[in-house]
Specification:
The chain is an alpha/beta fold. It is built from 19 helices and 14 strands.
């Protein structure tokens, strides 16, 4: 199903449709409310598509700022009458950068201005006149604890959705224990015992951390306020009617088993970027805030199979000119061609000299640089041999589903633990998280491109994930169970 770009004001939020008229069962109508960052929007967009495929009504709630950015993209070919896009203010000035360095500003403004507008929207949900039924359930991003509380306060059942991995969710759930043991995030190999089931391989350097300033190599050894806040939000998910995770039982069964006793119910429905498309025989469309450069696909067509390194460090990572030089030198030394996603705001100080450096060092034949790429199409292209990634969960799942080996260089948050699982648990890639050095980059890329063992593990995981999302698979069955759960809330 395609998500239309129709905009409705909060005063038009929800009303009864013909399906909810006298003598008929009310329609299930889910309001999906993501944290307003690209990775969270993508994942919850795929969930919305899956719910639409199942016949539910969906309201997708953006911020005004993000909806304006989406409005600059081409409109979908087909509209979806059971879907609306609404928006609320995020409370920040339009010229605010909303970058990774200002996440606390966004969090504070969403808790105040955003929360008040969200409450008003929900309260107006029964007096709407645009043909949509009342909202009967909220699925709120779990990092916004207020969104669960407000919905329940106004009488709308709320489900929490965490867009990160189960292994990172379990780590955040264990923050209180980590603090008691003094096992704070720090770039060292000292083992961690405070996360159940991970005692044998988790190190302090693998615990989630706040974003690093561009170019920094170390962090203060203290209790990270971001870690404490995320821990509180994670525990709070137990107050929701249920928890949804974008993962599969085959991929993260042990972590899911540890999480389940702390939640009222848990649905493992991933990878959603594929599962969401099973009802329409296609993968779900993106909701990108960046314009994708499709021209890179023609460049890939001209490359040999498994000869290209795809490089993308996500929508928030910021690196220094020095780090860029190390990455670039390491990639050039491998001799492999590479496709590099280099956002305009990614390099501290700008990307003008960065682009010139790429052209000077390797030339356009070995390297293609774009501001943003159609990542799922890139990863399934036969020319791509490995993925140099920040190990965000969306990227990790997309690579896993396509069987593409990974090299993980992390920036912050759940990426650090995802990269450890890629390397040590799943063995589908190489983790270089704290090191940005030409020789290390070259060695890791060569290993990911050339290791038969890594490629075999990656392809085995891909085969299992395809079974999980196929009809009758574990994730497919979980989506059906989730839909039934939502309908039972009526």
């Amino acid at each position: 199903m395609n998500l239309s770009t129709k905009t409705t004001t909060p005063a038009q939020a929800c009303t009864r449709s013909p399906t909810a008229s006298a003598g008929m069962e009310p329609a299930a109508h889910v309001l999906v409310f993501p944290w307003p960052l690209q990775g969270h929007i993508n994942c919850m967009h795929h969930l919305a598509t899956a719910l639409l495929d199942a016949g539910l009504h969906v309201t997708f709630l953006h911020t005004h700022h993000n909806l304006r950015r989406l409005a600059t993209k081409p409109a979908p070919a087909l509209s979806q009458p059971r879907l609306r896009l609404l928006s609320i203010p995020d409370g920040l000035p339009e010229d605010h950068p909303r970058s990774v360095a200002h996440l606390n500003d966004l969090m504070d403004s969403m808790r105040t201005t955003g929360s008040a507008a969200y409450r008003a929207l929900l309260l107006a949900s029964s007096s709407n006149k645009d043909g949509h039924p009342p909202v009967t359930c909220v699925i709120a991003d779990g990092v916004m604890a207020f969104a669960v509380d407000v919905a329940e306060e106004v009488g709308v059942p709320a489900i929490a959705f965490r867009t990160a991995s189960a292994c990172s969710f379990l780590t955040y759930l264990s923050v209180r224990r980590l603090v008691e043991l003094g096992e704070f995030p720090f770039p060292s190999d000292q083992p961690v015992s405070g996360v159940p089931g991970m005692e044998g391989f988790l190190r302090r350097r693998d615990l989630p951390r706040a974003p690093r300033p561009a170019g920094s190599a170390t962090d203060d050894c203290g209790v990270d306020p971001m870690l404490l806040n995320m821990g509180e939000c994670t525990v709070h998910s137990g107050e929701a009617r249920a928890l949804i995770l974008n993962t599969s039982a085959s991929m993260e069964g042990p972590a899911l088993a540890q999480i389940a006793p702390h939640m009222r119910d848990v649905f493992s429905v991933g990878p959603l970027h594929v599962a969401a498309g099973t009802g329409t025989k296609s993968t779900a469309p993106t909701a990108s805030l960046w314009r994708e450069d499709d021209g890179c696909m023609a460049w890939l067509d001209g490359q040999q199979d498994r000869s290209v390194v795809y490089v993308s460090l996500g929508s928030l990572t910021v690196i220094s000119e020095e780090q860029l030089a190390e990455f670039l030198s390491g990639l050039a030394a491998t001799g492999y061609a590479f496709l590099w996603v280099l956002r305009p705001d990614m390099v501290a100080g700008g990307t003008t000299t960065s682009l010139a450096a790429v052209k000077t060092l390797v030339g356009e034949k070995q390297a293609r640089v774009v501001h943003w790429a159609p990542q799922r199409d890139v990863l399934r292209h036969p020319a791509v041999g490995c993925f140099l990634t920040h190990a965000g969960w969306n990227s990790t799942l997309e690579a896993a589903y396509e069987g593409v080996p990974m090299v993980c260089w992390t920036f912050f948050g759940d990426q650090l633990i995802n990269s450890r699982f890629v390397d040590t648990v799943w063995r589908t890639g190489v983790d270089i998280k704290d090191v940005c050095d030409k020789a290390v980059v070259e060695k890791a890329v060569r290993e990911a491109m050339e290791s038969a063992e890594i490629r075999a593990a990656a392809q085995a995981m891909a085969r299992q994930l395809r079974l999980d999302v196929a009809d009758g698979g574990s994730s497919s069955s979980e989506i059906k169970r989730l839909v039934a759960f939502i309908r039972d809330l009526l």
